[in-house]
Amino acid sequence: MLLTITTTANPATDLGRLLRKHPDRVQPFEQSFGTAWVFYPEAGEDRCTAALLLEVDAARLARSHAGASGDASLKQYVNDRPYAASSLLAVALGKVFSTARSGDGGERPELAAAAIPLEIALPAVPCEGGPDLVRDLFAPLGWEVEAEAVPLPGFGTDSRHVRVRLRGELRLADALSQLYVLLPVLDDAKHYWVEIGEVDKLVRSGGAWLAAHPRRGLIARRYLAHRRSYERAAHARLAELAEAAEAEEEAPVEEESAVDGEQSLPLHRIRIAAVTEALAAAGAASVLDLGCGSGKLLAALLDDARFTRVTGADVSSRALGMAGHALHLDRMPERRRQRLQLIQGSVVYRDKRFGGYDAAVLMEVIEHLDPGRLPAMEQVVFGAARPRTVVVTTPNAEYNARYGMEAHQMRHADHRFEWDRARFGAWAEAVAARHGYRVRIEGVGTEDPGAGTPTQMGVFDRD
């Protein structure tokens, strides 16, 4: 099985930095079913190609498959698995290029955040659906697709194999994640055990691009080996991602400036200053911004030398791209760049990358969650990640009348709820008690004697 990735970005040899595989070396990676090799057929400043070659041990694969299925027939030894790019290649790609697929740019985050010209070539892919399905799956993702049926030698003239070439300008991490998901979808025959954990892999790897894909139903069905209960779980989570992506397109109803000219600064800047000061007062040096959006808080934290490690996480790859652009990753000074990381992840699903921070921030995030998802968020942030300090801000519904809003009207089209001060205080106290934190509630913005402040903030400190 062979996959090649080519770029003409200058310098093209930066492909080696993104893949974390040196162009001057041939590197083997042992798999349970064979050996994966990474090498570079060409590596120049103007053009660089990385190749992933998977040598399948047919006997070892047949033994493992027979043990799982009870089938020890000859067809387990004589088939197209050693030659055609199937789910086995997706497994190898996921392991060999795991860091690149996560979008972690290490010392060069601007490389990982940038879209670059890419050409992906797969000489033979087993495809139940032929060239048309290849185009249906990859064209909506921005690829120029070439796909043609090819007979695989020894397997007849009407074989189901397709030669695929993709050209486009994407982040390498997005391209790898798309291949990781879609190779087994094309084949429609996974060669390893499928269990509920595959739903997590699908949602994490597919993210927002899969949530918006016109063939997401077919993708989920095939990726999850036609298991109905897994499909339902995947569709529910993908629907959440689709709603989050749509929310990015909506303009907020909330007034950003203060009411009646009482404040000289917009509310969002006052909010950022309040959060930053709360983090500094807690002595936090490493901060995780959950739901970082376009990166306004990240910029403020990077401007403050007290914060030595700053990570922005968002469920939307589009939001992360906007954050990278707003933060000028492509020309950010090296010392500042080393303090920053951007990762894709959801606040309602456990993620080991969320651990190890002094503080976590959910700034204007919780009101975008369905109330039924709040317990999941609570377990992820306060139960699993457990930073020393958590800062949560959310609109104060009592203040909305000061913006001329009608009763029950909310400040943003995607808000699922907005709490008054009593409701937010009760929720915060209950969360703190369940997880061993103390919490203090503060107001942010100009205070109205009857309505309080426009934003309410809870600062949780772990006992």
From TrEMBL:
Residue ranges that the Swiss-Prot or TrEMBL entry lists as coiled coil: none
First-tier enzyme category under EC: transferase
Enzyme Commission number(s): 2.1.1.386
One Gene Ontology term of the molecular function aspect: metal ion binding
Pfam family, one: Methyltransf_23
Entry keyword set: Magnesium, Metal-binding, Methyltransferase, RNA-binding, RNA-mediated gene silencing, S-adenosyl-L-methionine, Transferase
Domain of life: Bacteria
Gene3D superfamilies: Hen1, N-terminal domain, Vaccinia Virus protein VP39
Domain Hen1 N-terminal, first and last residues per copy: 1-239
Keyword Cytoplasm appears in the UniProt entry: no
InterPro entries with a match to the protein in the record: 3'-RNA_MeTfrase_Hen1_bac, Hen1, Hen1_N, Hen1_N_sf, SAM-dependent_MTases_sf
Family: Belongs to the methyltransferase superfamily. HEN1 family.
The protein's name in its UniProt record: Small RNA 2'-O-methyltransferase
Provenance organism: Glycomyces sambucus
Biological classification of the source: Bacteria, Bacillati, Actinomycetota, Actinomycetes, Glycomycetales
